[in-house]
Specification:
Elements (H helix, E strand, L loop, with lengths): L11 H11 L1 H17 L1 H21 L1 H21 L2 H10 L4 E2 L6 E2 L2 E9 L2 E7 L6 H6 L1 H7 L4 E8 L2 E7 L25 E6 L4 E4 L6 E4 L8 H9 L1 H6 L2 E6 L15 E3 L2 H25 L12 E6 L2 H5 L4 H17 L5 E7 L15 E5 L4 H8 L22 E5 L6 E6 L4 H13 L9 E4 L1
Parallel strand pairs: 9-13, 9-14, 10-11, 10-12, 11-17, 12-13
Antiparallel strand pairs: 1-2, 3-4, 4-6, 5-6, 7-8, 7-16, 14-15, 15-16
Helix pairs in contact: 2-3, 3-4, 10-12
Protein name: DNA segregation ATPase, FtsK/SpoIIIE family
Organism: Saccharomonospora marina XMU15
Keywords: ATP-binding, Nucleotide-binding
Length: about 450
């Protein structure tokens, strides 16, 4: 493949034949339309094409969820491949950045070939590129600033897919340019949707919703990434159920900063390391007692109510609890959290964990969390640790989010059906809005205030 014996370049007709072989659909579609026009008449063919377009438009308007999941990525990929990254545009961009080789004998410029384009979301494209012999990923890394400007995009990340094939993950635009306001607190418990609490917005302009009942939520992000906005938004959505006693908040707060405001509405609150361990031990005891009660009643799951409440364990700074403190306490906590992660869903015992460093050494129970969020992180490897294998390759560029207060709350989640990364932004909950939450719960509290106790301050 890399040998260069002849001084003659390959014929243009052979290049054209090879192109047709690589892109049969782009040749077949116009051919089918032409054949239909000749055979059925152009009016009939126009009606068929128009009906197809009208059908897609109706689908787009009538059922956005399935259209965005099934049709939009394919249509967007095709448009970007044959308009944004088409032939000469792609070739000229790479030549301008010196990302080509020259045939030693013929002098022919050999530009890396664009093999495939995938556009899983409106703001991120993944370009699969086949390199020529003598080229390497490092050459593209050295030219990333120039290539970013040449393609007129926000940023580009690189991944090696296999020998001589690399992927350029291209972020075309930033969908979030404004801070998202905190979600409104429902006034009645009946208005709370435990399966889809609103915590922000997604890159499609819709609400970003997450389930709480029967789920464990894991959020990773560096300092200042906006992790605390997620549990704050969740708790605002749960406010009337906390007030009515249908949700009990168990809060481990080693940092003793933002969440200290929530101590008055917590069923249990702890800050010191041993106190947090005691709180989690009590949480596990409560879970096991609920399991026994459900077993005796022949039930498989709870319906949240003041009698059988949903218990939510919020774990701030999990690294401080599991890895950075007393090793003996950390070992016990890992064992207890593994029990909660593997057994707590049916009994209504959910976890919401926050961490800066999502490695297995820091959070060995990471894989037991059913829903995960990756905000700005400091390493490309952290993205796949949080969101799963090849998440970054599919467009989750969480390590490329700028370390800027204006980007707080921006991150990625995996869409459950398609397994495609989706860019999201958590709503920003101010201190005033946290105070509003506490006041709302305390003033309308229908349980016994004595139940609210601090394990350790």
């Amino acid at each position: 493949m890399g040998r260069e014996f002849s001084k003659r370049a390959r014929g243009a007709e052979m290049k054209a034949a090879a192109w047709v072989g690589r892109h049969p659909g782009s040749v077949l579609a116009p051919s089918v339309v032409t054949a239909s026009g000749l055979e059925l008449g152009w009016a009939t063919t126009g009606g068929i094409v128009g009906g197809t377009v009208a059908g897609l438009g109706a689908w787009y308007r009538a059922h956005p969820d399935t259209f965005d999941r099934l049709a939009a990525p394919r249509l967007r990929s095709w448009r970007r491949r044959w308009w944004t990254y088409v032939g000469l545009r792609w070739r000229n961009a790479l030549i301008a950045c010196d990302l080509f080789t020259t045939h030693r004998k013929t002098g022919e410029l050999r530009v890396p070939r664009l093999v495939r384009v995938r556009s899983y979301s409106p703001s991120v494209d993944t370009l699969y590129v086949k390199l020529h012999p003598g080229q390497h990923l490092r050459q593209f890394e050295a030219k990333l600033p120039e290539l970013t400007e040449a393609l007129k995009v926000e940023r580009i990340a690189l991944e090696r897919v296999k020998p001589r094939v690399i992927a350029l993950v291209v972020e075309r635009a930033e969908p979030f340019t404004e801070v998202i306001e905190a979600p409104e607190m429902p006034q009645d418990a009946d208005a709370v949707e435990l399966g889809r609490l609103s915590v922000g917005e997604n890159e499609y302009g819709g609400d970003w919703r997450i389930p709480v009942l029967g789920q464990h939520l894991f959020a990773a992000g560096a300092t200042g990434a906006g992790k605390n906005s997620i549990p704050a938004a969740v708790l605002r959505g749960l406010a009337p159920m906390i007030r009515d006693g249908s949700v009990r908040l168990w809060l481990c707060d080693p940092k003793q900063m933002e969440f200290a405001k929530l101590a008055p509405i917590a069923y249990r609150y702890a800050a010191e390391e041993q106190a947090c361990a005691d709180l989690i031990d009590e949480y596990v005891d409560d879970m096991q007692a609920t399991q026994q009660a459900l077993s005796g009643q022949g039930k498989r799951a709870i319906t949240p109510s003041p009698v059988t409440p949903l218990n939510l364990l919020v774990l701030d700074e999990m690294g401080a609890l599991l890895a950075y403190g007393d090793p003996s306490v950390g070992r016990g906590l890992r064992r207890q959290l593994a029990l909660i992660g593997s057994q707590g869903r049916a009994s209504g015992h959910s976890m919401l964990g926050l961490v800066q460093e999502p490695t297995k050494d820091t959070v060995p129970v990471r894989d037991l969390f059913t829903n995960r969020i990756c905000l700005r992180v400091t390493s490309a490897a952290h993205v796949d640790m949080v969101l799963g294998e090849n998440a970054r390759l599919r467009g989750a560029l969480a390590d490329e989010i700028p370390n800027d207060p204006a980007t707080a709350g921006i991150g990625y989640v995996i869409r459950q059906r398609s397994r495609v990364p989706m860019r999201v932004r958590a709503a920003y909950v101010t201190d005033t809005e946290l105070d509003e939450l506490v006041t709302f719960v305390r003033e309308g509290w229908k349980g016994t205030p004595a139940n609210l106790q601090v394990v350790a301050g």
